[in-house]
């Protein structure tokens, strides 16, 4: 895994980026189930990542976040950007869907990156990691373009879990600039689903939503290229990964371009 620090004009290095009022120092803790070996990364007491050796499927929201990558199975190397890497759970599911995908990620916390490498076997996933504030990363002029951008950034825990103040806006608009013309923007939401849906419908012609059994999350996938629930289900149909999770994930159309 290659880890780099983002340097922007007017800022000396990434250390200067982490002093936002939104940002609270992230000190992850790792819990290990002694029987199954399943590992869970907690940040501010909230589960942010899970890892079980030889088992990429989680049965939770991370599976839904990775699903839109299946829409690019026709590409030799789909390009995916993850905003909020955590322990790398989404990257692991993406690798199961698309072993040859190029995966880049932005993570603000060096402690989280270190924990992911030590406890979650992050290096084996070959993720190109940039340590930076995702807001600053997206605000910079795009240096490359992605087929899928996955936004999975949260602050707080429990009833206080929330998005930083720059999400959904201007973050969604900035993220759109980094997408290819046929790209898909994916957002993980909890308490802010309504605002996220409004912005997705404003920015994109096609929007679908995914819900996971027994979870409070709603995942939105939005694109200016044709995208609907049936097309996504058809793209997923041949995947062994999807066969393991389809009973828990429902996909529905939110907006279809007339």
**What is the approximate shape?**
globular
Structural class: alpha/beta
Largest sheet: 9 strands, mixed
CATH domain class name: Alpha Beta
Number of helices: 8
Strand order of the largest sheet: 1-7-6-5-8-9-11-10-12
Q: Please give the domain count.
A: 1
- The assigned CATH architecture is 3-Layer(aba) Sandwich
Q: CATH superfamily, called what? A: Vaccinia Virus protein VP39
Number-wise, the strands total 12
Low-confidence stretches: 4-21
Listing every helix as H and every strand as E from the N terminus to the C terminus, the arrangement reads EEEEHEHEHEHEHEHEEHHE
Q: Classify the fold: give the CATH topology.
A: Rossmann fold
Rg: 17 Å
Which secondary structure elements does this structure contain, and how are they paired or packed?
Blueprint: E1 2-5, E2 29-32, E3 39-43, E4 46-51, H1 61-66, E5 79-83, H2 89-97, E6 102-107, H3 110-119, E7 127-131, H4 134-139, E8 146-151, H5 171-176, E9 179-189, H6 193-203, E10 206-212, E11 218-223, H7 229-236, H8 240-245, E12 249-255
Short structural description:
By secondary structure, the chain is an alpha/beta fold.
